[in-house]
Specification:
Elements lengths: L1 H12 L13 E2 L2 E2 L1 H4 L8 E5 L2 E4 L20 H9 L6 E2 L16 H13 L12 H12 L4 H4 L3 E7 H16 L5 E5 L3 H9 L4 E5 L1 E2 L4 E2 L1 H10 L5 E5 L12 H13 L3 E6 L9 H4 L1 H8 L4 E6 L11 E7 L3 H19 L5 H11 L1 H32 L8 H4 L4 E3 L4 H9 L3 E2 L5 E3 L8 H14 L2
Parallel strand pairs: 5-16, 7-8, 7-11, 11-12, 12-13
Antiparallel strand pairs: 1-2, 3-4, 6-14, 9-10, 13-14, 15-17
Helix pairs in contact: 4-14, 4-15, 5-14, 7-8, 7-13, 9-10, 10-12, 14-15, 15-18, 17-18
Length: 465
């Protein structure tokens, strides 16, 4: 278009009389000037001071997207961007929940590499999966969650659909709630994973919070939790973290889980579990699924979203599932049909690579045992740095403050009890990158840097209000 403009200007400026071109057709882009110039007029963007001198006045088009404002940076993923820009050699990225080795490098599980080699050797194709995903994966993931001998599996009362990791599975479930339980509210713990609220907001599902974290004890506000569950409108959905609560790392005890189930059952609520760390929290697949299995054993209908980002390190594969436990096989069939109907316009069908990895590992006894060993190793490393961080803080803090809540927490996260100003000090002074609610990811900590982190926490806690 610029070249065409130059050509037009050149012709007009060198011509004694523009009207002499009345039988010519000159075009600028897709515009025909025959109807404008040849009526003795000039285009609106030409301003002629003399017959031989022409200037252009450039009009700026207003974007149709002018009303769209800049979105705020993601509070978690933005931490990694700031970390990358920091050149300090002592910097630590404890924001994003992703496992790192003792050298603070990303880790691809050996069992995943073996599963991928088997896939290459078998010559698998890249055809579309069905809307519900890979059949072998759906079978394996439901059995992993509930146990192969569980009555809900044997009686075919579980509707399982492969989702786009935990986030996509939660979003699909939210769409189901919005469509078939209009007006039903989802109760969310305070605090919770930062994306939970976004997911339900986007799906136009109303939500409210129930008390969970007690800042006085840096522990569970169990009485407040039960009170809020009982006060909620009957038939609400209660979002629960199956294990390794994010962001606090504070889980109910087995006895407390029983009372939570009692309260939910009494109010005819529907439990909705988010299971992102099965096997990765304690190192045991069965132990980390015990809360879900407790509710299922009581004959309750429930929803469970799963993710394999953490326990198999398949962060980029986006592999997970949504499971809906129903009171009958017939109900499960109908629910699954509607989950598929909702998934079709969202993303059509899920990716196959991660699903095959999971199915091959869970379905192969040798690989399955190797996976459990690697999970125990990863969970063990996190437990080790948690203990060393606690020991380092206690050794350097002579005030007598009780830091034992660090050891009582479980999983990859620790809620330090630091406020926003103190968390800012951690970053600005100590180059420790973390979320502003005081959460740190122990998966990004090495034993070698535990003492450094302990000094940063002590300084921030006592010297910043």
């Amino acid at each position: 278009m610029a070249a065409s403009s130059a050509a037009i200007l050149s012709v007009v400026s060198s011509t004694p009389n523009a009207a002499s071109f009345s039988k010519e057709k000159l075009k600028l882009g897709s515009c025909n000037f025959n109807s404008v110039l040849w009526q003795g007029k000039q285009p609106s963007f030409f301003k002629t001071k003399s017959l031989s001198k022409v200037t252009m006045s450039v009009a700026t088009n207003v974007s149709r997207f002018e009303s769209i404002t800049m979105a705020p940076p993601d509070p978690i993923l933005g931490v990694s961007e700031a970390f990358k820009a920091d050149t300090n050699e002592m910097k630590l990225n404890l924001g994003v929940g992703a496992y790192r080795t003792e050298d603070l490098e990303p880790y691809v599980l050996n069992v995943v590499k073996k599963a991928e080699n088997l896939m290459l050797a078998s010559g698998e194709n890249k055809e579309y999966l069905p809307i519900e995903g890979l059949v072998a994966f759906n079978k394996a993931t439901a059995e992993l969650l509930f146990g192969a001998g569980n009555p809900v599996i044997q009686q075919q009362r579980v509707a399982t659909v492969q989702g786009l990791s935990g986030t996509g599975s939660l979003r699909l479930a939210a769409a189901l709630i919005e469509r078939y339980f209009p007006g039903a509210k989802v109760l969310i713990s305070s605090p919770t994973w930062g994306n939970h609220k976004n997911i339900f907001n986007d799906a136009k599902v109303p939500w409210s919070e129930y008390r969970y974290y007690d800042p006085k004890t840096v522990g569970l506000d169990f009485d407040g939790m039960l009170s809020d569950i009982k006060a909620a409108p009957e038939g609400s959905f209660v979002l629960l973290h199956g294990c390794a609560h994010n962001p606090t790392g504070i889980d109910p005890t087995p006895e407390q889980w029983v009372k939570i189930a009692d309260a939910i059952e009494e109010k005819n609520h529907i439990p909705f579990f988010d299971v992102a760390y099965q096997g990765f929290a304690s190192g045991s697949l069965d132990e980390d699924a015990s809360s879900v299995r407790l509710f299922a054993s009581r004959g309750m209908e429930l929803l469970v979203a799963q993710s394999y980002s953490k326990n198999l390190g398949l962060y980029a594969e986006r592999i997970g599932a949504i499971n809906v436990v129903c009171s009958s096989a017939d109900a499960a069939t109908r629910v699954k049909s509607q989950l598929k109907r909702l998934a079709r316009p969202m993303y059509s069908n899920p990716p196959v690579h991660g699903a095959r990895i999971v199915a091959n590992i869970v379905g192969n006894p040798t690989l399955f045992n190797e996976w459990k060993e690697e999970m125990e190793m990863m969970a063990g490393r996190i437990k080790s740095v948690r203990q060393k961080l606690f020991d380092s803080i206690c050794a350097n803090d002579k005030s007598g403050k009780d830091w034992s809540y660090i050891l009582k927490q479980i999983g990859m996260f620790s809620f330090t009890g630091l406020n926003k100003a103190q968390s800012d000090n951690m970053t600005n002074k100590w180059h420790v990158y973390m979320t502003k609610d005081g959460r740190i990811s122990l998966a990004g900590l090495s034993s070698a840097k535990c003492e450094y982190l302990a000094d940063a926490i002590i300084d921030s806690f006592y010297n910043v209000s």
